[in-house]
Amino acid sequence: MRVFQKAERQALTTARARGAMSAVRGCPEPRSSESSPPDTMETAGFRRLGVCVMCGLPAAGKSTLARALHHILRRREGLGWDCALLTYDDLIPQEAFSQPGTEAGLVAQQPLLSRWKLYRHELLVYLEHFLQALINGDHLCAPTNRTEATWKSFVSCFKEQGLISSEIHDAKSCHYLINTITSRPLYFVLDDNFYYQSMRYEVYQLARKYSLGFCQLFLDCPLESCLQRNCLRSQPLPDETICLMARKTEVPNPEKNTWEQNSLILKSVECTSEDNFQVINLLVTALENPVKQTEENTEQKETDRAICAASILHQADQAFRRIVSQTMKDVRDKNVLPNEMKILAEELNKLKAEFLEDLRQENHQKNQFCLPSSEFITNVITSFQQATDNVVKKVVFF
Protein backbone atom coordinates (compact mmCIF):
# COMPACT_ATOMS: atom_id res chain seq x y z
CA MET A 1 0.00 0.00 0.00
CA ARG A 2 2.92 2.38 0.65
CA VAL A 3 4.02 1.92 -2.94
CA PHE A 4 0.54 2.93 -4.11
CA GLN A 5 0.63 6.01 -1.91
CA LYS A 6 3.96 7.05 -3.44
CA ALA A 7 2.58 6.41 -6.92
CA GLU A 8 -0.50 8.42 -6.05
CA ARG A 9 1.59 11.44 -5.06
CA GLN A 10 3.54 11.17 -8.33
CA ALA A 11 0.31 11.01 -10.33
CA LEU A 12 -1.03 14.08 -8.53
CA THR A 13 2.13 15.98 -9.40
CA THR A 14 1.79 14.93 -13.03
CA ALA A 15 -1.85 15.99 -13.07
CA ARG A 16 -1.01 19.40 -11.66
CA ALA A 17 1.64 19.88 -14.32
CA ARG A 18 -1.01 19.24 -16.96
CA GLY A 19 -3.40 21.69 -15.36
CA ALA A 20 -5.80 18.90 -14.54
CA MET A 21 -6.47 19.33 -10.84
CA SER A 22 -10.18 19.78 -11.45
CA ALA A 23 -10.21 16.29 -12.95
CA VAL A 24 -8.19 14.73 -10.15
CA ARG A 25 -9.97 16.31 -7.19
CA GLY A 26 -13.41 16.50 -8.79
CA CYS A 27 -13.93 20.23 -8.23
CA PRO A 28 -12.48 23.49 -9.57
CA GLU A 29 -9.67 25.26 -7.76
CA PRO A 30 -10.58 28.53 -5.99
CA ARG A 31 -10.84 31.53 -8.30
CA SER A 32 -10.55 35.21 -7.52
CA SER A 33 -13.37 37.59 -8.38
CA GLU A 34 -11.24 38.97 -11.23
CA SER A 35 -10.54 35.59 -12.78
CA SER A 36 -12.22 34.31 -15.93
CA PRO A 37 -15.66 32.66 -15.67
CA PRO A 38 -15.66 29.09 -14.41
CA ASP A 39 -15.83 26.20 -16.83
CA THR A 40 -19.36 25.50 -18.07
CA MET A 41 -19.29 21.80 -17.18
CA GLU A 42 -18.10 22.53 -13.65
CA THR A 43 -20.78 25.16 -13.14
CA ALA A 44 -23.46 22.74 -14.27
CA GLY A 45 -22.30 20.18 -11.73
CA PHE A 46 -20.77 17.94 -14.38
CA ARG A 47 -19.35 14.80 -12.85
CA ARG A 48 -16.50 13.00 -14.54
CA LEU A 49 -17.11 9.27 -14.89
CA GLY A 50 -14.71 6.49 -15.80
CA VAL A 51 -14.67 2.70 -16.07
CA CYS A 52 -11.63 0.47 -15.54
CA VAL A 53 -11.73 -3.12 -16.77
CA MET A 54 -9.61 -5.60 -14.80
CA CYS A 55 -8.74 -8.60 -16.96
CA GLY A 56 -6.65 -11.74 -16.72
CA LEU A 57 -6.86 -15.37 -15.68
CA PRO A 58 -8.63 -16.47 -12.48
CA ALA A 59 -6.32 -16.14 -9.45
CA ALA A 60 -3.99 -13.77 -11.32
CA GLY A 61 -4.36 -11.14 -8.57
CA LYS A 62 -7.08 -8.95 -10.11
CA SER A 63 -9.26 -8.76 -7.01
CA THR A 64 -6.31 -7.86 -4.78
CA LEU A 65 -5.33 -5.02 -7.10
CA ALA A 66 -8.96 -3.92 -7.50
CA ARG A 67 -9.44 -3.65 -3.75
CA ALA A 68 -6.21 -1.66 -3.42
CA LEU A 69 -7.38 0.73 -6.15
CA HIS A 70 -10.77 1.06 -4.49
CA HIS A 71 -9.09 2.07 -1.25
CA ILE A 72 -6.52 4.46 -2.68
CA LEU A 73 -8.91 6.27 -5.04
CA ARG A 74 -11.33 7.06 -2.22
CA ARG A 75 -8.68 8.44 0.14
CA ARG A 76 -9.68 12.04 0.70
CA GLU A 77 -6.08 13.13 1.32
CA GLY A 78 -5.11 11.56 -1.99
CA LEU A 79 -7.08 11.58 -5.23
CA GLY A 80 -10.37 11.87 -3.38
CA TRP A 81 -12.46 10.18 -6.07
CA ASP A 82 -15.52 8.02 -5.61
CA CYS A 83 -15.05 4.43 -6.70
CA ALA A 84 -17.53 1.62 -7.32
CA LEU A 85 -15.98 -1.85 -7.27
CA LEU A 86 -17.97 -4.56 -9.04
CA THR A 87 -16.49 -7.97 -8.30
CA TYR A 88 -18.28 -10.34 -10.64
CA ASP A 89 -17.50 -13.44 -8.53
CA ASP A 90 -19.52 -11.87 -5.70
CA LEU A 91 -22.42 -10.65 -7.86
CA ILE A 92 -23.09 -13.63 -10.13
CA PRO A 93 -25.09 -16.54 -8.61
CA GLN A 94 -23.25 -19.73 -7.69
CA GLU A 95 -25.19 -21.71 -10.30
CA ALA A 96 -23.16 -20.01 -13.03
CA PHE A 97 -20.04 -21.75 -11.72
CA SER A 98 -21.46 -25.29 -11.58
CA GLN A 99 -20.95 -27.73 -14.41
CA PRO A 100 -24.10 -28.47 -16.46
CA GLY A 101 -25.65 -31.87 -16.13
CA THR A 102 -25.47 -34.51 -18.82
CA GLU A 103 -28.22 -36.41 -20.53
CA ALA A 104 -27.74 -39.68 -22.42
CA GLY A 105 -24.02 -39.07 -22.55
CA LEU A 106 -24.42 -35.70 -24.28
CA VAL A 107 -23.10 -32.44 -22.86
CA ALA A 108 -25.88 -29.98 -22.00
CA GLN A 109 -26.63 -27.36 -24.61
CA GLN A 110 -25.46 -24.45 -22.49
CA PRO A 111 -21.78 -24.80 -21.50
CA LEU A 112 -20.34 -23.23 -18.36
CA LEU A 113 -18.68 -20.28 -20.11
CA SER A 114 -21.86 -19.47 -22.07
CA ARG A 115 -23.95 -19.19 -18.90
CA TRP A 116 -21.29 -16.98 -17.33
CA LYS A 117 -21.49 -14.78 -20.43
CA LEU A 118 -25.25 -14.29 -19.93
CA TYR A 119 -24.75 -13.10 -16.36
CA ARG A 120 -21.91 -10.78 -17.41
CA HIS A 121 -24.19 -9.16 -19.96
CA GLU A 122 -26.90 -8.81 -17.34
CA LEU A 123 -24.55 -6.93 -14.99
CA LEU A 124 -23.68 -4.49 -17.80
CA VAL A 125 -27.40 -3.84 -18.28
CA TYR A 126 -27.72 -3.03 -14.58
CA LEU A 127 -24.70 -0.74 -14.74
CA GLU A 128 -26.22 1.10 -17.68
CA HIS A 129 -29.46 1.57 -15.72
CA PHE A 130 -27.44 3.10 -12.91
CA LEU A 131 -25.58 5.40 -15.32
CA GLN A 132 -28.81 6.59 -16.88
CA ALA A 133 -30.27 7.41 -13.49
CA LEU A 134 -27.07 9.11 -12.31
CA ILE A 135 -26.64 11.25 -15.43
CA ASN A 136 -30.32 12.20 -15.67
CA GLY A 137 -30.79 12.77 -11.95
CA ASP A 138 -33.51 10.12 -11.73
CA HIS A 139 -34.28 7.28 -9.38
CA LEU A 140 -32.77 3.87 -10.11
CA CYS A 141 -35.48 1.59 -11.45
CA ALA A 142 -35.26 -2.20 -11.50
CA PRO A 143 -35.16 -3.54 -15.09
CA THR A 144 -38.21 -5.46 -16.23
CA ASN A 145 -36.19 -8.45 -17.40
CA ARG A 146 -33.90 -9.30 -14.52
CA THR A 147 -32.61 -12.16 -12.45
CA GLU A 148 -33.84 -11.30 -8.98
CA ALA A 149 -30.84 -12.66 -7.09
CA THR A 150 -28.33 -10.89 -9.37
CA TRP A 151 -30.23 -7.59 -9.21
CA LYS A 152 -30.39 -7.71 -5.40
CA SER A 153 -26.65 -8.41 -5.26
CA PHE A 154 -25.98 -5.46 -7.57
CA VAL A 155 -28.10 -3.08 -5.49
CA SER A 156 -26.57 -4.30 -2.22
CA CYS A 157 -23.07 -3.82 -3.68
CA PHE A 158 -23.79 -0.18 -4.52
CA LYS A 159 -25.53 0.43 -1.19
CA GLU A 160 -22.50 -0.83 0.73
CA GLN A 161 -20.30 1.59 -1.22
CA GLY A 162 -22.60 4.55 -0.56
CA LEU A 163 -23.76 5.05 -4.15
CA ILE A 164 -27.37 4.03 -3.51
CA SER A 165 -29.37 5.19 -0.51
CA SER A 166 -30.58 2.51 1.89
CA GLU A 167 -34.03 4.06 1.59
CA ILE A 168 -36.32 2.77 -1.16
CA HIS A 169 -38.19 5.55 -2.92
CA ASP A 170 -40.99 3.24 -4.08
CA ALA A 171 -40.98 -0.31 -2.70
CA LYS A 172 -43.64 -1.63 -5.08
CA SER A 173 -41.86 -0.57 -8.26
CA CYS A 174 -38.35 -1.04 -6.78
CA HIS A 175 -37.20 2.56 -7.24
CA TYR A 176 -33.99 3.45 -5.40
CA LEU A 177 -32.49 6.81 -4.50
CA ILE A 178 -29.01 7.55 -5.84
CA ASN A 179 -26.62 9.54 -3.66
CA THR A 180 -25.65 12.58 -5.74
CA ILE A 181 -24.45 14.95 -3.03
CA THR A 182 -20.90 14.97 -4.39
CA SER A 183 -19.44 16.09 -7.70
CA ARG A 184 -16.21 14.15 -7.22
CA PRO A 185 -15.11 11.94 -10.15
CA LEU A 186 -16.54 8.44 -10.02
CA TYR A 187 -14.68 5.37 -11.30
CA PHE A 188 -16.32 2.00 -11.90
CA VAL A 189 -13.80 -0.83 -11.49
CA LEU A 190 -15.04 -4.07 -13.10
CA ASP A 191 -13.28 -7.12 -11.68
CA ASP A 192 -13.68 -10.16 -13.94
CA ASN A 193 -11.62 -12.25 -16.37
CA PHE A 194 -12.58 -10.41 -19.61
CA TYR A 195 -10.27 -12.76 -21.52
CA TYR A 196 -11.88 -12.08 -24.92
CA GLN A 197 -11.48 -8.68 -26.60
CA SER A 198 -15.19 -8.84 -27.40
CA MET A 199 -16.03 -8.96 -23.68
CA ARG A 200 -14.04 -5.79 -23.08
CA TYR A 201 -15.41 -4.14 -26.20
CA GLU A 202 -18.92 -4.39 -24.75
CA VAL A 203 -17.74 -2.24 -21.84
CA TYR A 204 -16.02 0.16 -24.24
CA GLN A 205 -19.29 0.55 -26.17
CA LEU A 206 -21.01 1.48 -22.90
CA ALA A 207 -18.26 4.01 -22.17
CA ARG A 208 -18.63 5.50 -25.66
CA LYS A 209 -22.41 5.72 -25.34
CA TYR A 210 -22.18 7.83 -22.16
CA SER A 211 -18.80 9.53 -22.79
CA LEU A 212 -16.98 7.81 -19.93
CA GLY A 213 -13.26 7.49 -19.47
CA PHE A 214 -12.20 3.95 -20.39
CA CYS A 215 -9.08 1.96 -19.54
CA GLN A 216 -7.92 -1.64 -19.14
CA LEU A 217 -5.59 -3.33 -16.66
CA PHE A 218 -4.41 -6.76 -17.80
CA LEU A 219 -2.64 -8.90 -15.19
CA ASP A 220 -0.21 -11.19 -16.98
CA CYS A 221 0.33 -14.01 -14.50
CA PRO A 222 1.90 -17.38 -15.47
CA LEU A 223 -0.65 -20.17 -15.82
CA GLU A 224 1.20 -22.33 -13.29
CA SER A 225 0.94 -19.61 -10.63
CA CYS A 226 -2.78 -19.14 -11.30
CA LEU A 227 -3.40 -22.89 -10.95
CA GLN A 228 -1.48 -23.00 -7.66
CA ARG A 229 -3.34 -20.01 -6.22
CA ASN A 230 -6.66 -21.39 -7.43
CA CYS A 231 -6.11 -24.59 -5.42
CA LEU A 232 -5.87 -22.49 -2.24
CA ARG A 233 -9.31 -20.94 -2.76
CA SER A 234 -12.32 -22.11 -0.76
CA GLN A 235 -14.21 -22.73 -4.02
CA PRO A 236 -11.60 -23.36 -6.72
CA LEU A 237 -12.46 -23.49 -10.40
CA PRO A 238 -11.69 -26.68 -12.34
CA ASP A 239 -8.15 -26.60 -13.72
CA GLU A 240 -9.57 -27.35 -17.18
CA THR A 241 -11.60 -24.12 -17.09
CA ILE A 242 -8.53 -21.99 -16.32
CA CYS A 243 -6.44 -23.81 -18.94
CA LEU A 244 -9.20 -23.24 -21.51
CA MET A 245 -9.25 -19.52 -20.68
CA ALA A 246 -5.46 -19.39 -20.98
CA ARG A 247 -5.64 -20.81 -24.51
CA LYS A 248 -8.35 -18.37 -25.53
CA THR A 249 -7.08 -15.23 -23.77
CA GLU A 250 -6.69 -12.19 -26.02
CA VAL A 251 -4.24 -9.70 -24.56
CA PRO A 252 -5.06 -5.98 -25.14
CA ASN A 253 -3.53 -4.85 -28.43
CA PRO A 254 -3.48 -1.02 -28.67
CA GLU A 255 -1.56 -1.11 -31.96
CA LYS A 256 -4.32 -3.09 -33.65
CA ASN A 257 -7.36 -1.74 -31.78
CA THR A 258 -7.46 2.01 -31.22
CA TRP A 259 -10.17 1.57 -28.59
CA GLU A 260 -7.61 -0.29 -26.43
CA GLN A 261 -5.12 2.60 -26.37
CA ASN A 262 -5.62 3.18 -22.63
CA SER A 263 -4.34 -0.24 -21.60
CA LEU A 264 -1.65 -1.42 -19.23
CA ILE A 265 -0.20 -4.94 -18.93
CA LEU A 266 1.16 -5.80 -15.49
CA LYS A 267 3.22 -8.74 -14.31
CA SER A 268 1.10 -9.62 -11.30
CA VAL A 269 3.74 -11.67 -9.48
CA GLU A 270 5.82 -8.60 -8.61
CA CYS A 271 4.33 -5.13 -9.14
CA THR A 272 7.00 -2.43 -8.93
CA SER A 273 6.57 1.18 -7.88
CA GLU A 274 6.82 2.12 -11.55
CA ASP A 275 3.93 -0.25 -12.32
CA ASN A 276 1.80 1.34 -9.63
CA PHE A 277 2.58 4.84 -10.83
CA GLN A 278 1.56 3.80 -14.34
CA VAL A 279 -1.74 2.44 -13.00
CA ILE A 280 -2.67 5.72 -11.32
CA ASN A 281 -1.48 7.72 -14.31
CA LEU A 282 -3.56 5.51 -16.64
CA LEU A 283 -6.71 6.20 -14.60
CA VAL A 284 -6.05 9.94 -14.63
CA THR A 285 -5.40 9.96 -18.39
CA ALA A 286 -8.56 7.99 -19.18
CA LEU A 287 -10.67 10.24 -16.97
CA GLU A 288 -9.31 13.38 -18.65
CA ASN A 289 -9.95 11.94 -22.12
CA PRO A 290 -13.40 10.34 -22.13
CA VAL A 291 -14.48 8.27 -25.11
CA LYS A 292 -16.25 10.43 -27.67
CA GLN A 293 -19.69 9.42 -28.83
CA THR A 294 -19.79 8.35 -32.47
CA GLU A 295 -21.74 10.76 -34.60
CA GLU A 296 -22.47 8.36 -37.46
CA ASN A 297 -25.57 6.20 -37.30
CA THR A 298 -24.30 2.64 -36.91
CA GLU A 299 -27.61 1.07 -35.95
CA GLN A 300 -28.23 -0.40 -39.39
CA LYS A 301 -24.68 -1.75 -39.58
CA GLU A 302 -25.11 -3.47 -36.25
CA THR A 303 -28.46 -4.90 -37.34
CA ASP A 304 -27.03 -6.24 -40.59
CA ARG A 305 -24.06 -7.75 -38.78
CA ALA A 306 -26.34 -9.41 -36.22
CA ILE A 307 -28.44 -10.95 -39.01
CA CYS A 308 -25.31 -12.20 -40.75
CA ALA A 309 -23.94 -13.63 -37.50
CA ALA A 310 -27.20 -15.41 -36.68
CA SER A 311 -27.29 -16.95 -40.16
CA ILE A 312 -23.72 -18.25 -39.95
CA LEU A 313 -24.25 -19.59 -36.43
CA HIS A 314 -27.36 -21.44 -37.60
CA GLN A 315 -25.57 -22.92 -40.62
CA ALA A 316 -22.61 -23.96 -38.51
CA ASP A 317 -24.80 -25.53 -35.83
CA GLN A 318 -26.70 -27.58 -38.40
CA ALA A 319 -23.50 -28.69 -40.12
CA PHE A 320 -21.84 -29.61 -36.81
CA ARG A 321 -24.88 -31.70 -35.81
CA ARG A 322 -24.75 -33.61 -39.10
CA ILE A 323 -21.03 -34.29 -38.72
CA VAL A 324 -21.42 -35.51 -35.14
CA SER A 325 -24.39 -37.70 -36.06
CA GLN A 326 -22.61 -39.24 -39.06
CA THR A 327 -19.43 -39.79 -37.06
CA MET A 328 -21.30 -41.58 -34.28
CA LYS A 329 -23.06 -43.77 -36.84
CA ASP A 330 -19.80 -44.69 -38.58
CA VAL A 331 -18.12 -45.58 -35.29
CA ARG A 332 -21.13 -47.57 -34.06
CA ASP A 333 -21.04 -49.69 -37.23
CA LYS A 334 -17.53 -50.80 -36.25
CA ASN A 335 -18.83 -52.43 -33.03
CA VAL A 336 -17.11 -50.03 -30.66
CA LEU A 337 -17.63 -50.70 -26.95
CA PRO A 338 -20.57 -48.82 -25.29
CA ASN A 339 -18.33 -46.99 -22.80
CA GLU A 340 -16.15 -45.70 -25.64
CA MET A 341 -19.28 -44.58 -27.51
CA LYS A 342 -20.40 -42.65 -24.45
CA ILE A 343 -17.04 -40.92 -24.04
CA LEU A 344 -16.94 -40.11 -27.74
CA ALA A 345 -20.42 -38.56 -27.62
CA GLU A 346 -19.40 -36.37 -24.70
CA GLU A 347 -16.18 -35.24 -26.35
CA LEU A 348 -17.83 -34.46 -29.71
CA ASN A 349 -20.62 -32.42 -28.14
CA LYS A 350 -18.09 -30.60 -26.01
CA LEU A 351 -16.12 -29.84 -29.17
CA LYS A 352 -19.28 -28.59 -30.91
CA ALA A 353 -20.13 -26.30 -27.97
CA GLU A 354 -16.60 -24.81 -27.99
CA PHE A 355 -16.70 -24.18 -31.75
CA LEU A 356 -20.09 -22.44 -31.48
CA GLU A 357 -18.89 -20.36 -28.53
CA ASP A 358 -15.86 -19.23 -30.55
CA LEU A 359 -18.17 -18.22 -33.40
CA ARG A 360 -20.37 -16.23 -31.03
CA GLN A 361 -17.33 -14.39 -29.76
CA GLU A 362 -16.23 -13.64 -33.33
CA ASN A 363 -19.56 -11.86 -33.75
CA HIS A 364 -18.20 -9.04 -31.57
CA GLN A 365 -14.99 -8.54 -33.53
CA LYS A 366 -14.94 -5.72 -36.04
CA ASN A 367 -16.01 -6.84 -39.51
CA GLN A 368 -14.44 -10.29 -39.13
CA PHE A 369 -17.64 -12.29 -38.99
CA CYS A 370 -19.22 -11.15 -42.23
CA LEU A 371 -16.54 -11.94 -44.72
CA PRO A 372 -18.01 -13.78 -47.74
CA SER A 373 -20.23 -16.12 -45.74
CA SER A 374 -19.99 -19.16 -48.05
CA GLU A 375 -16.19 -19.21 -47.88
CA PHE A 376 -16.15 -18.50 -44.15
CA ILE A 377 -18.64 -21.24 -43.23
CA THR A 378 -16.84 -23.74 -45.48
CA ASN A 379 -13.56 -23.08 -43.65
CA VAL A 380 -15.27 -23.43 -40.27
CA ILE A 381 -16.94 -26.72 -41.19
CA THR A 382 -13.66 -28.09 -42.56
CA SER A 383 -11.89 -27.19 -39.31
CA PHE A 384 -14.63 -28.87 -37.27
CA GLN A 385 -14.45 -32.02 -39.39
CA GLN A 386 -10.69 -32.21 -38.85
CA ALA A 387 -11.09 -31.65 -35.11
CA THR A 388 -13.78 -34.36 -35.03
CA ASP A 389 -11.47 -36.85 -36.73
CA ASN A 390 -8.76 -36.10 -34.19
CA VAL A 391 -11.18 -36.73 -31.30
CA VAL A 392 -12.19 -40.08 -32.78
CA LYS A 393 -8.55 -41.12 -33.09
CA LYS A 394 -7.89 -40.12 -29.49
CA VAL A 395 -10.93 -41.76 -27.90
CA VAL A 396 -11.67 -44.86 -29.96
CA PHE A 397 -9.26 -47.76 -30.39
CA PHE A 398 -10.21 -49.77 -33.46
From TrEMBL:
Gene3D superfamilies: P-loop containing nucleotide triphosphate hydrolases (3.40.50.300)
UniProt keyword annotations, A-Z: ATP-binding, Coiled coil, Nucleotide-binding
Coiled coil: 334-365
A GO BP annotation: selenocysteine incorporation
UniProt biased composition (Low complexity): 29-38
A Pfam family assignment: KTI12
InterPro entries: KTI12/PSTK, L-seryl-tRNA_Sec_kinase_euk, P-loop_NTPase, Ser-tRNA(Sec)_kinase
One example GO MF annotation: ATP binding
Name of this protein: Phosphoseryl-tRNA kinase
